[in-house]
């Protein structure tokens, strides 16, 4: 899961990561905290400043909105796999098709605190807070920025405000 964690400095997180080891000969992944190989670690670094991100690349992806059953909860949820435009519709790797995909934040960027600098990945809910705008609203402006000077200015402002 990815809930809130106790704030730490980048140096503390980097020190914790030194204990991580790559598996040898089929052994289970282990190390500090006994993390499994497919386990995601979520951290809170406060205060931190975004020092760099690629403003020339779109910081979102287009996701499949098709409703599928969640294997863990049994409830319905959006597929959310990346979609590609296929003629007059969008299609994901599973074969779902839609006319209008949903945009979701996804990007990597550098953050810094008083102890160092680290590249991190950010995802939809967190980046909506960081950028101050829902991904779909930003994606609509991103798509128009080549032909609409107002949209271009709005995209640039989102990036400038985060540097």
TrEMBL record:
UniProt superkingdom: Eukaryota
InterPro entries per UniProt: NA-bd_OB-fold, Rep_factor-A_C
Gene3D superfamilies: Nucleic acid-binding proteins
Replication factor A C-terminal domain boundaries: 46-143
Protein name: Replication factor A C-terminal domain-containing protein
């Amino acid at each position: 899961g990815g809930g809130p964690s106790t704030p730490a400095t980048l140096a503390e997180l980097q020190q914790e990561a030194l204990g991580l080891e790559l598996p040898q000969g089929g052994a289970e992944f282990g190390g500090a905290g006994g993390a499994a190989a497919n386990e995601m670690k979520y951290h809170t670094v406060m205060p931190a400043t975004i020092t760099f991100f690629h403003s020339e690349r779109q910081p979102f992806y287009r996701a499949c909105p098709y409703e599928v059953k969640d294997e863990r909860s049994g409830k319905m949820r959006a597929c959310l796999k990346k979609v590609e435009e296929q003629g007059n519709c969008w299609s994901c790797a599973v074969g779902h098709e839609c006319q209008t995909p949903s945009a979701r934040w996804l990007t990597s960027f550098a953050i810094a605190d008083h102890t160092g600098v680290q590249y991190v990945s950010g995802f939809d809910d967190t980046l909506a807070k960081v950028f101050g705008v829902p991904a779909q609203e930003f994606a609509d402006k991103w798509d128009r920025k080549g032909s609409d000077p107002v949209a271009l200015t709005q995209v640039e402002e989102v990036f400038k405000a985060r540097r």
